[in-house]
């Protein structure tokens, strides 16, 4: 305990780049289910790190471990150099979790007032309301809010204590496009003020738009980690989609094509470079139509990564 | 936290006592507002004991006597106990079970809320609603049942019953830790209603079947109701200390069970 506190103080004095939160060789089982397997993961000060993965990959488990809400079966969890359950660490963290039911008869303003009171230097109510886009809803009871408004209220509760470290578990679930972008802006503003953010998402676009670093997680294991550019480069190339008479077997014969598969009426082709493949395609099938070309984005990278590792791809 | 750690702790991250008190008060205030606006809670917790009292104490048996005590006075003590039990069990167990089962308690636990503030608020709520129920019973009895009690006795009756909220709040916390969010209200009723009957809260103790009378001696609501009846001169002349001891022991057992649930939720055992 004493060592923990000394380390806490050491971290506080450390410059940016210090590790703020980490999982070290962490495994977590729920009975027979292995939610996390030997996960190593760090979040540096001032970074936005995204944990990206499909539902059930272990993202929420990782967040709960770092919040000290559950304990690992193996390995160590550390926040600000100490135990996540340390009350003083909680003073410096804010969390937005997925909740089934929030007390519905309290007003937005009242919820924020209560959570702000837990912290030493909370933000002024007006600032919290503005940041979460809730100015007009302050007197509304939680039960009368829409899904997106409820998410924004939970976000407000996460930031109201002006914490140094924010955990956002699927923050934009249920938000429309406009509200999602507004929340992204707000997260960027927090990072500008020196905050550290760990967010989980299964929206690839979200991780790409916000994160300095992405850790791709699937079936309890981190299968790739790096900047968004690095993750994307792991499966470079282009995706070509078109309607053609050529068979999949014939397409695979074309030099440069790495994969081809039938997708409803069209075929989807992956190739390192699009142009040489296209020349051959158009030459061999003059009736080719519905042509689309896209970079293999994060989505492709993500699918490729998760399919390589999991045995159960979708065919 | 150990004293060594407390001494070492960074003052910048420590709350003042005043701040801590403010948190406890706010938690209690919002717990109260939350429940007051929840009609299911206010209606069932307040109106059931009052309805029973009006029916059996004011409409049907108002002129009858039980020993030397008028029925309207006698039933304030027993329906008061009934009301206190309901306010306390529903005030703690159903909220706790829902908060636990549906994730809200995790959000609170992830925040720097002092964990004890959450429980204190629920117990406070139970006591406030207990006081409301007992006061309304007294008002009804005095206005329509010809109940005449010295002010000191009324205060003692109110104080005793409100203090009697504690064992049932403890029981509610224990239930809340082991019942699911949807099954909690059913679980409470399953315990609350038979317990009330067997303790002589609906039918006065002496009119209960012999077997039930023997069971009653082991039930906490029986002991609280005897304390209340003792104040209005209708007790069974058992020593009051025995009743308090039983209630205290029951409280401690329930708190022990609740603690096991609390630690299970924390995912570890301290010690």
Provide an overview of this structure.
The complex is a heterodimer of chains A (315) and B (271). Chain A is of the alpha/beta class. Chain A folds into two domains: 2-226, Rossmann fold, CATH 3.40.50.300; 237-295, Alpha-Beta Plaits. Chain A contains twelve helices and 13 strands. Chain B has one domain (19-266). Chain B has a two-stranded antiparallel ribbon with strand order 1-2. The longest helix of chain B is centred in the N-terminal third of the chain and has 31 residues, at 71-101. Chain B is globular. The model of chain B is unreliable at 1-11 (pLDDT under 50). Classes of the chains: A alpha/beta (315), B mainly alpha (271). At the A-B interface, α1, α3, β5 and α4 of A face α1, α2 and α5 of B.
Brief descriptors of the model:
heterodimer, A: Rossmann fold, Alpha-Beta Plaits, 2 domains, 28% strand, disordered N terminus, disordered C terminus, B: 271 residues, mainly alpha, two-stranded antiparallel sheet, 1% strand
Strand runs of chain B, count: 2
| Rounded mean pLDDT score of chain A | 85
**What about the largest sheet of chain B?**
2 strands, antiparallel
**Helix/strand order of chain B, N-terminal first:** HHHEEHHHHHHHHH
Residues in helices of chain B, as a percent range: over 70%
Main beta sheet of chain A: 6 strands, mixed
Percent range for β-strand residues of chain B: under 5%
User: How many individual helices of chain B?
Assistant: 12
The unreliable regions of chain A are 1-16, 309-315
């Amino acid at each position: 305990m004493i060592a923990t506190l000394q380390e806490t103080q050491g971290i506080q004095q450390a410059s940016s780049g210090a590790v703020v939160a980490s999982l070290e060789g962490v495994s977590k089982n729920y009975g027979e289910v292995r939610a996390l397997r030997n996960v190593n993961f760090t979040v540096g000060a001032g970074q936005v790190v995204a944990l990206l993965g499909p539902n059930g990959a272990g993202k929420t488990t990782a967040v709960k471990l770092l919040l000290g809400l559950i304990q690992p079966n193996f390995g160590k969890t550390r926040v600000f150099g100490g135990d996540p359950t340390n009350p003083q660490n909680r003073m410096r963290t804010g969390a937005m979790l997925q909740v089934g039911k929030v007390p519905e008869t309290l007003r937005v303003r009242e919820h924020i007032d209560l959570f702000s009171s837990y912290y030493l230097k909370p933000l002024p109510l007006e600032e919290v309301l503005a940041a979460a886009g809730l100015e007009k809803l302050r007197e509304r009871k939680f039960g009368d809010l829409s899904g997106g408004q409820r998410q924004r209220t939970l976000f407000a509760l996460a930031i109201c204590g002006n914490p140094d470290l924010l955990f956002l578990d699927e923050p934009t679930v249920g938000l429309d496009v406009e509200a999602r972008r507004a929340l992204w802006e707000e997260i960027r503003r927090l990072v500008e003020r020196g905050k550290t953010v760990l967010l989980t998402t299964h929206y690839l676009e979200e991780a790409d738009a916000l994160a300095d670093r992405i850790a791709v997680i699937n079936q309890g294991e981190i299968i790739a980690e790096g900047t968004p550019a690095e993750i994307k480069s792991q499966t470079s190339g282009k995706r070509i989609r078109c309607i053609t008479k050529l068979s999949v077997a014939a397409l695979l014969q074309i030099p440069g094509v790495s994969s081809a598969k039938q997708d409803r009426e069209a075929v989807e082709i992956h190739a390192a470079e699009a142009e040489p493949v296209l020349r051959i395609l158009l030459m061999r099938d003059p009736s080719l139509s519905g042509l689309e070309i896209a970079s293999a984005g994060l989505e492709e990278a993500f699918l490729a990564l998760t399919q390589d590792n999991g045995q159960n791809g979708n065919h | 936290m150990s004293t060594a750690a407390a001494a070492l702790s960074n003052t910048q991250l420590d709350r003042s006592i005043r701040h801590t008190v403010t948190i406890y008060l706010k938690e209690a205030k919002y717990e109260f507002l939350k429940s007051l606006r929840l009609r299911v809670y206010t209606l069932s917790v307040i109106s059931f004991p009052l309805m029973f009292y009006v029916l059996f104490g004011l409409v049907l048996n108002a002129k009858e006597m039980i020993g030397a005590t008028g029925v309207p006075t006698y039933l304030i003590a027993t329906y008061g106990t009934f009301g206190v039990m309901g306010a306390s069990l529903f005030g703690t167990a159903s909220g706790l079970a829902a908060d636990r089962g549906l994730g809200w308690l995790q959000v609170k636990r992830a925040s720097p809320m002092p964990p004890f503030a959450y429980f204190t608020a629920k117990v406070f709520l139970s006591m406030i609603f207990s006081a409301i129920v007992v006061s309304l019973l007294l008002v009804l009895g005095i206005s329509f049942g010809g109940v005449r009690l010295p002010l000191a006795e009324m205060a003692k009756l109110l104080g005793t019953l409100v203090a009697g909220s504690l064992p049932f709040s403890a029981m509610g916390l224990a239930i809340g830790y082991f019942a699911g969010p949807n099954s909690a209200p059913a679980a409470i009723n399953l315990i609350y209603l038979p317990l009330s009957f067997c303790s002589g809260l609906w039918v006065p103790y002496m009119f209960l079947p012999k077997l039930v009378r023997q069971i009653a001696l082991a039930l906490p609501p029986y002991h609280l109701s005897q304390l209340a009846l003792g104040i209005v001169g209708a007790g069974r002349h058992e020593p009051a200390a025995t009743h308090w001891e039983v209630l205290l022991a029951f409280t401690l057992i329930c708190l022990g069970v609740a603690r096991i649930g609390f630690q299970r939720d924390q995912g570890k055992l301290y010690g």
